[in-house]
Amino acid sequence: MELFVEVFNAITLKSLVMIGVGGLLIYLAVKKGFEPSLLLPMGFGTILVNLPLSSALDQIAGGKVVEGALSMLFKIGIATEIMPLLILIAVGAMCDFTPLLANPKVFLFGLTAQGGIFLTMGIALFFGYNVFEAASIGIIGAADGPTSIYVATRFAPNLLGPISVAAYTYMALVPLIQPPVIMALTTQKERRIKMTYAPNSISKMTLILFPVLVTILGGIVAPASVALLGFVMFGNLLRVSGVTDRLSNAAQNELANIVTILLGFSIAATMTGEKFVNAGTLVIISMGLVAFVLDTASGVLTAKLFNIFLPENKRVNPMIGAAGISAFPMSARTIQRMGQKADPHNYLLMHAVGANVAGQIGSVLAGGILLAYLG
Length: 375
What we know:
Low-confidence stretches: none
Distance between the termini: 52 Å
Helix content: over 70%
Number of helices: 21
Strand content: under 5%
Number of strands: 2
Mean pLDDT: 88
Shape: globular
Order of helices and strands: HHHEEHHHHHHHHHHHHHHHHHH
Radius of gyration: 21 Å
């Protein structure tokens, strides 16, 4: 009876709100299909940590600290930055850089579409966040969950919960977020621009050298990016080397699946009512949306500027610029659908994929630059 009373007294309004948030994340994963592999474990984990006197979190019993299961996973996998880095190996193994190498000019969009990160960082500074918190909020615009978690763990672990939720939720909502922004910045004529795709044959040696050289160059420009960029490129090297197919398949499947489960579960350790239910969380989630919008706008406007210097028959469809964010392959598919809607004979997928994988490189470089020059 005493235990029941103690449990009942430990229930708070904030914990009940977060149990509802956990249920909402599960609903979005199951019913709407929004990033289910991450939102489902994150939602269930949120319920676990907000139950009164939950053993999923550290508790004080008999005058000593008893480690909770999710708290332990967080310390081992997130605080040490191991899980986000392992996910990046899987991401690299999934990326095919052939469309980028076949049309290298789209690499420009993978860089400029990260502009929203730094613009949102300025907005966060204006609202009173310190420079490290502002960088952690701005990196949501990278549309790269592992990079967002990695930077937030370094700079603002107190904001890791809302940043993680915002990053992965908005990645899943790319098909809803990007089209209105693109429509507002382009004309019907621009959306109908056709781009032929006739790539030159990319040699195996080029595919092997690419991840090695990108890692070296990125490491020279921003040494702090070596872990982020290096793990992505290592995963890609497993894919293209031709001698590690078994390891590449394991990275894309077993490694990605296991670490994703543990990552979502571990992040939930930060999503307690006391930490999460406040006005600051809503501000962070709102600024995350702003970052996504500004990233999309930066890519589109760069493509429009690019076209000023090109003859009419060589112009790029400005929508390709929006695919420069790191949400692969959701953004590329969104651009393809919008291109088909503007003109049923318009096939933009491979160009968009090139920009999209360039965005993967751009996002980890942006994260590395923040770490290098603020760390």
